[in-house]
Write a structure and sequence with these properties.
Number of domains: 2
Order of helices and strands: EHHEHEHEHEEHHHEHEHEHEHEHEHH
Helix content: 25-40%
Shape: globular
Number of strands: 12
Distance between the termini: 56 Å
CATH superfamily of the largest domain: Glycogen Phosphorylase B
Largest sheet: 6 strands, parallel
Number of helices: 15
Mean pLDDT: 95
Strand content: 5-15%
Strand order of the largest sheet: 3-2-1-4-5-6
Low-confidence stretches: 343-347
CATH architecture of the largest domain: 3-Layer(aba) Sandwich
Length: 347
């Protein structure tokens, strides 16, 4: 397979098909940086669902965003074809598919992109001009390494290798105005993928109360629109006052709020990876998911996990007794916080 760098002079417009989950999309940012470093003169466009598109609007490794909305204007086969035809008019030279689904390959083929590169997954190899084999070793890689490995097989290297996200000045100013001064600790008690990844609201409330006592912390609750009930349960169970922004922020606003926090306590989730990209220290709770493949890519974090015989199972909901998360106590999380920020940290 010819490397894409051998064709560098012919590549002026690049389409990147992003992943559909926010956390996974954040983990592609080192790979996006490698594309930018390899093709510094090329125009790079990211195609993504509405939430991920917001994550990258703006981002230093891409020039423009195209929204692929499968629940709206691009619903069903007619919507997919319409989106592909709109891409064809833009005359991309190269499509790099971080999304593993066959759908991404079909769209790039219908869009008549001459060079189409991605992992040989989902029976889509025949639709790609540069299909990278994926085996057991690749599937066991950390997700960030998984995307970088694909590019390395194509001759694409460079960039910092770090996660990256960027808030605008206006977004940062908005967050600072809302939060004001103080040692802000964000709690992210939700997880979009499923209930199995979620620790328990009463225990989050216990942790919040102790952090207020020990650190004089101010507590911020964050989460998606479908997690407002979880946020309200924590708010009612906690003794101290909590700023509950669950379901009240856009993706960009969530980024800006986390960037102004001193710590995030979180389940394995998209906000966890956002915080890692923004340099926010993290205490991460893992149960059914595999921390070796989806841990936050940062030096400033602590893992809270109890080894049980059925984990990681990767299930959305627990079919038994949820022992992986049930075993985690508030004291475990508090000890991780102390290890990370120090007992004598002041507001």
């Amino acid at each position: 397979m010819e490397t894409l760098t051998a064709l560098r002079v012919k590549i002026r417009k690049i389409l990147i098909r992003s992943t559909n989950w926010i956390g996974d999309a954040v983990m592609t940012t080192p790979a996006m940086g490698a594309v930018r470093a390899t093709f510094p003169e090329a125009e790079i466009t990211v195609a993504a669902n509405p939430a991920v598109a917001e994550l990258f609007s703006p981002h230093p490794s891409c020039d423009r965003i195209l929204v692929f909305d499968k629940k709206g204007s691009h619903r069903g086969i007619p919507g997919l074809v319409h989106f592909a035809h709109s891409l064809a008019r833009k005359e991309f030279d190269l499509a790099i598919l971080f999304q593993n689904a066959v759908e991404a390959a079909i769209i790039s083929r219908l869009a008549r992109v001459p060079l189409r590169a991605g992992y040989k997954t989902d029976c889509r190899g025949f639709l790609l001009t540069h299909a990278v084999p994926v085996g057991r070793s690749e599937r066991r890689m950390h997700h960030t390494a998984y995307y970088l490995h694909m590019l390395e097989c194509l001759g694409i290297r460079g960039g910092s290798g770090n996660l990256s996200l960027a808030c605008t000045k206006a977004e940062c100013d908005w967050a600072r105005t809302l939060l004001g001064e103080g040692f802000w600790v964000a709690l992210n008690p939700g997880a979009t993928y499923g209930s199995a990844k979620r620790w328990y609201p009463p225990r989050f409330a216990q942790v919040a109360d102790r952090l207020v006592e020990e650190l004089g912390a101010r507590i911020l609750l964050v989460g998606g629109a479908g997690e407002t009930g979880i946020g309200e349960e924590i708010e009612h169970a906690a003794n101290g006052r909590i700023l509950n922004m669950t379901g009240k922020t856009s993706v960009r606003q969530l980024m800006a709020l986390l960037a102004n926090c001193r710590l995030l306590i979180t389940n394995d989730s998209g906000p966890m990876h956002i915080a890692a990209a923004l340099g926010v220290p993290i205490v991460a709770l893992f149960g059914p998911t595999d921390h070796t493949t989806t841990s936050p890519l940062t030096d400033s974090w602590r893992l809270v996990r109890k080894p049980v015989d059925c984990a990681p199972c990767l299930k959305r909901s627990c079919p038994t007794d949820h022992r992986c998360m049930e075993a985690i106590e508030a004291t475990d999380v508090l000890q991780a916080v102390r290890d990370l920020v120090g007992r004598n940290t002041q507001p």
